[in-house]
Amino acid sequence: MGYGKIEYNDEGLPKCEICGKHFHRVTAHVRQVHGLSAREYKLQFGLDLIKGICSKESAEKSREKAMSNYEKVIAENLIQCGEETRFKKGAVGRTRDKVSQQTLNRLKQNTFLKNEK
What we know:
Layout: H1 26-34, H2 38-44, H3 56-68, H4 70-80, H5 101-116
């Protein structure tokens, strides 16, 4: 594996970089078996802190479950409860020194892609 890259097997399962086995949800495995939080694991292997490490099948199941329970998951949790974490006019926000390397890489990549269009 290249640093910061997730490897998948032929079945589309991501690989645990600690033990080399493949799972539908690597971060759940890492927490239960290796005792690391998802954040610790992602930092150790240079992975994006925002992105999940799961199979497409597992992501689709989660998406379907969330959408079937829209009122609770989306309307209440994200829209109502997320009010306090939204950017407010006049707030300082994060400065460049507080942004992770993964975020900087993603911003550079997105900027490059936008300039190519």
